[in-house]
Design a protein that fits this description.
Length: 498
């Protein structure tokens, strides 16, 4: 990390970090979107005005404000404005629906809820009112504003919990992951250092800004003073003109993004897909070693893949200067300040980038000496690289998002054609994993089809990204001989591609 980034990284709060960057390079761009460009200086000026508008609405330090917004300039400004006030933010992924949103609003005790109105065919305002959400306001292309002179002093400390991110984990209900400004700054600093950004780099945020990676990425931009392209909706080839127009040099998100870029490159193998691109980077889903070699060979760029989770956004990351073997077969090394230990094959974490726990969690998820068990299995190589070998938790990771198998199973159990069901993740090159529902037919029932199952789950309010892509009907699910527990590993062996 260069000296400027190192000094900025000592900021106590996210707002202090943004203000320091604005003072150093006020005229450099931070966000690029279509024909719009926002500088670091303008970001802070707009955020203070919006903070004043929110203050006039009654938002104070400690007020819980939920927001479910797409990846836009306005979303970043609103989030920074809330950080200026010291409010507690509860970001929600835009494709979450009634079940997840209703749970998050209730559990967080949100007093305000920012929505985009109708976005991509879904009426978020109607959903908010249907759920009885308090303080609903629109924040898509207009934001509340006021006089910054009315604002109190910025929060002096970055250690209190001010962020609640949501992850499904392995249970039917999401978990609220508690972060502070300092934990997010620590994670973003790790990411920035690992990617070895250059002064002329242009990044890209093609994933939901409401993901914990959004704050991670913002910290990286503030530390290094580089801009990022914001994509409200990522789709190829439609998004390619924006990548080319803004000269993006660093792109990615997860395994699915790599595969999509490869698919497009293969349509015109003799022409570079994005001429300025030098690096793909991401995490959140398994990366087949062969995919690394395909990206390097066919796209002509480097690929660094990492390991992170909502609880610790940056645990390890591949280094662009690592050997091809290390980049292809490991998740990289932990940065300074991230302690990893392996206990009975399970990965345990400790460090400033690790969350403060879970909302309402009792007992504490941490070990007596402060390590967080991840539920993931792996080992460290002699060079300190982390190799993931599996997961204790029954969770499916599809395009970087955690999906609870139990949640889908609980809903499908209510269908009259289902006697029993097991939901598993199967390897998939494009998604990392796909969702497969294996159904044991109910007595005398007509065989369930995939379209019928998907339609039924939609009516029950399941988010679109959790819907099964595959359905198998069996006479009887495999079970053990003691408690008749379904043996999911046998289903994976049977239905995984050979």
């Amino acid at each position: 990390m260069n000296e400027t980034a190192r000094s900025l990284g000592s900021a106590r709060t996210l707002w202090e970090l943004a203000a320091r960057r604005a003072a150093r390079t006020p005229d450099r761009p931070v966000f690029l979107q279509s024909s719009r460009s926002l500088t670091f200086g303008e970001l802070c000026v707009r955020a203070e005005r919006v903070a004043a508008g929110l203050y006039g609405m009654g938002v104070r330090a400690g007020t819980v404000v939920a927001w479910q917004l797409p990846t836009r300039v306005e979303t970043a400004v609103l989030s920074l404005a809330l950080a200026r006030l010291g409010a507690v933010q509860s970001p929600l992924i835009p494709f979450y629906r009634d079940r997840e949103v209703g749970f998050a609003l209730r559990e967080s005790g949100a007093e305000f809820f920012a929505v985009p109105g109708v976005w991509r065919g879904h009426d978020h305002t109607a959903m908010a009112h249907r759920l009885g959400a308090p303080g609903v306001f629109h924040a898509y292309d207009t934001l509340p504003t006021g006089d910054p002179a009315t604002l109190p002093s910025p929060p002096p400390s970055g250690t209190p919990v001010r962020w609640i991110y949501w992850t499904s984990g392995t249970t039917s209900a999401p978990k609220g992951v508690l972060h502070s400004d300092r934990s997010l700054i620590a994670a973003g600093s790790c990411l920035a250092h690992a990617l070895r950004l250059r002064p002329d780099d242009v990044g890209s945020i093609a994933f939901p800004y409401a993901h914990v990676g959004g704050a991670d990425y913002l910290v990286m931009l503030l530390l290094y003073g580089v801009p990022a392209l914001l994509l409200e909706h990522f789709a190829l080839p439609d998004s390619l003109p924006e990548y080319r127009r803004h000269g993006v040099t660093v792109a990615g998100g997860s395994t699915a993004f790599y595969s999509l870029f490869l698919t497009e490159q293969r349509k015109r193998p003799a022409t570079r897909l994005i001429p300025t691109l030098r690096l793909l980077a991401g995490g959140g889903a398994p990366k087949p070693p062969e995919l690394y070699h395909q990206v390097v060979r066919e796209l002509g760029v480097q690929l660094t893949h990492g390991y992170g989770m909502t609880e610790a956004p940056m645990i390890t990351m591949g280094d662009p200067t690592d050997t091809p073997a290390a980049l292809a077969t490991t998740e990289g090394r932990p940065p300074a300040g991230m302690d990893i230990r392996i206990v009975d094959g399970e990965i345990h974490l400790r460090g400033e980038a690790v969350c403060h726990g879970y909302l309402g969690s009792s007992p504490s998820p941490f070990t007596p000496d402060g390590f967080l068990p991840t539920g993931d299995l792996g080992h460290l190589t002699p060079t300190g690289h982390l190799v993931l070998t599996g997961r204790r938790k029954d969770v499916i990771i599809r395009k970087g998002e955690n999906i609870s198998a139990k949640e889908i199973e609980d809903l499908l159990h209510g269908h009259p054609a289902v006697g029993d069901v097991a939901v598993i993740g199967l390897p998939d090159e494009a998604r990392g994993e796909l969702v497969c529902a294996v159904v044991e037919r109910g007595p005398g029932a007509v065989e369930l089809t995939l379209p019928e199952a998907v339609s039924y789950l939609r009516t029950r309010g399941l988010a679109t990204h959790k819907l099964p892509e595959r359905l198998e009907v069996v006479a009887e699910l495999p079970r053990n001989g003691a408690l008749r527990k379904v043996l999911k590993y046998r289903l994976r062996e049977r239905f995984s591609p050979s």
